[in-house]
Batch of 2 targets.
Target 1
Amino acid sequence: MWSSYWDSVAVFLGINVLMGISLYVPMTAGLISLGQGAFMAIGAYVCALLTKANVPFLPALLAGGAVAAVAGLVAGAPALRIRGIYVMILTLGFGEIVRVFFLNFEPTGGASGMGGIRPLTELWQVVLACLIAYAVAWRMRHLRLGRAMIAIHEDDLVAEAMGINLTRTKLVSFSLGALVAGVAGGFYAHQALFIDANQFDFSRSAITFLYVVLGGVANPFGSLVGAAIVTLLPELLRVVQDWRMTVFGTILVLIAIWRPDGLLPAPRLRRS
Amino acid sequence: MLLHVDRITRRFGGYAALNDASCEVAEGLVHALIGPNGAGKTTLFNVISGVLRPTSGRLRFQGVDYTGSRPDKVLTMGIARNFQHVRLVRGLSVLENVMIGAHARIGRGLLGNAAEFLGFAVAEKAAREKAREMLDFVGMAGKAEMQPDNLTLVDQRRLEIARALVSDPRLLLLDEPAAGMNAAELNELSALIRRTQVNGLTVLLVEHHMRLVMSVSDQITVLSAGTIIAGGPPQVIQRDPTVIAAYLGNGDELALHS
């Protein structure tokens, strides 16, 4: 019995999977972002504004992604000079800047948010977007850019000494991730039908981080598994009613203990 | 001259690892850089390959001043290197590790990447071929699909040489490639270095293994305490009293004649 309730859950799952991929891509190059919610917000607002101006959904969606990608370049540029935990703090700050911007920006509704968005998101579109994003993420491992990102992640000195332009590769990976988050934001706006700044706050970014870490950082399908668990488990746990989030949290902790590298292993590990 | 190292000084705080060091590397030769531990050999390598900026002094390659260029730029100019402590990318196969070295050779830009993604990966295929060729060249054919972690240290060193060679360098910097090798492997290594010469490649070699250095090199530069104290062909260096003093004075009873 596929009700509209499950239809809606599936759409949000797809959006979350896209968010997971949007973080997985820069993480391949060793850039951990705690500000993916900001790119999602940018995509959501841009896309919603455009469809309100009667721009068809697909171009609006792509425009949202494109603006988010540009924002990714802007946010990524200072992140190039720093590493690891400092990148996380910087992206966290960027996320807050974007949230507070939309909170105070009256043309997009400010604190009262933006309503009256048409329900244009359909499940097949989200599924298709996920498939495309996965095809790219999977193929990338076997391409020049993907290899360069893995090399930077593991040893940026070697990467640079072997002719890889660190600046360009890091920016491209950050921006690609932002693009995916922007598209996810467009879908989200036209599914939720009402958006405000606080829907894209730190907890959105943190939970996106959780998808990837839970599923397995070394595997592009990790974010799928992680997003599925984080999205579906609370729905399935409704039977335990008030204890829902407690049980959910316990399960997450247990997974972290049993599978510290995430649920999915790194692909293509050869033994000889 | 292929490479000019012109009065390079590199300080770490108050300590000068390199102090006004100058040398020239002629095209097509195997040029060894020797000296006691702590003489500044690896620092000089890092300066030449752009990993470290010199505090003062200039670097010229094929007549072009490239002082201060980033390592990726230096590689594209035609200077490739290995690392004294092997540095391989563990998440990639042996072949893919070699292909990292071909990065700059493969088509660039958004269009190139898009074409590659859609399967028109002409440059990618050529790079793959070339990477296989290089593995073959260093004697690692058949190990292309292995994980670098599962290789012996000697093979890991060979892999680094293949990775450097795939970028088609004019100058190859080898930092202690013989470390940990037995006699048979040493002979293979010296044959390998000789084979790279066929294409007119210049090799700058840092090595403690004197038998290898004396047998394979055309020119030797001796570095001690950040300063160049001697230079010349092996026969001259072996008899140079300042060189002998530098080694013996350091308590390093390395037999230069062995």
Note: Chain A has one domain: 4-200.
Target 2
Amino acid sequence: MQLNCNAYHLACRGLVGWFRPLVLAAVLLFLPVAWAGEGPFFITYTHQMEEPGNLELASKNLAGQPDGGNMFLGGATEFEYGAKAWWTTELYLDAQGTNGQGALFTGYRWENRFRLLPREHWINPVLYVEFENINGADKTMLEVVGHDGQDDLTSPNHEARTDKQREIETKLILSSHFRGWTIAENIIAEKNIRHAPYEFGYAAGVSRPLALFARPDPCNLCAENFEVGVEGYGGLGTHNDFGLHDTSHYLAPTLAWNLANGPTLRFSAGFGLTRTSARFLLRFGVSYEIAQVGRAVRKLLGGDRS
Amino acid sequence: MKSLWQAGTCILVAAAALAGSLVERVPAQAANCSNPLENSEPVRRAGAKLYARECAACHGSNRDGIGKAPPLNQAEVYAAPPGVLFWVLRNGSLQRGMPSFAHLPEPQRWQIITFIRSQNRSSKSQPDDNPK
């Protein structure tokens, strides 16, 4: 953006400073929408990275009711950006509402995924590193580790929100694509920065599109747009008390529906497998991808003439 | 100091020349793989749909290339064996910013390749046959 700034140089600089975010927001609105093409998993990661320069906006929601607690709706708003072909970075903003206790913002997470091998192999490792600054009232359950259980979901919001959780979470993501099937396993280690032992967990999933061939014409209800799968996830205790004792585990059939004009809708019904697990968790979400945001921003800021 | 700089530049230029294009760097055995879906109009149309969805944001809807993403409407791509293009789609090139498309089912990758390679012929007879 070029303005004539000869006479009022400083004032113009301020004006440009104000304009840029507005122009940027307008540019984002009119950028082409890309095919989100997300798999059906909510918890399990595969080695599929965000395409460089693309920004994906997504909402991941969880509804449930623990034994002895109120019904709740947890939500995470996700901004996923492909920084490089081998590096994807994401910001999550978490919130929740609990019946009879109101709604609140529960914190943020910043995650980074690094693809470790340059070529495709029969199994492909990705390193995941996340910093999360959330409080005890967070109910997004984007991972289950240690001795997490449904008791964590029953504390009243006004008490739970005082429990600060600043944690580093790492995952080793292993995944493969084989004849249309996607098979993924995640090994999780999490550590509260200030106290508490290392906590461990796992997630694993299998999925497949209903059709492997694309039809010639755009369609919404054709089989190629649906991907079904199942994922399992749970805690593995802590480094002091490793194992399955007093841990939660879930098994969840999942479905993704990729609409012809870009967005992906996802649903998952999770069933608790142990006494400490919540009996039923309903997850649903939508994701929407904007193509080549990075290039548009660089152009706007004058750094890219291509 | 100047000679050091020149030597460094020469090494970089030589390395770039040796690196060549992505198509040139594909292992030779990949070329033996043939496209099971070649020469079919429905496959080509499906490939056009997939190209618009998966590739056009970087390579352009007319395959002219955008920024660092190279054009695909060039002789080197038309002449490349299908197996070589399949290898490129499967593996990508992380250093050059090309992601892997291994998450697409194998038949869909062949459909894209059918479309890309058909452009050489169809662009002569149907100049405006581009995905929207």
Note: Residues 9-30 of chain A form the longest helix (22 residues).
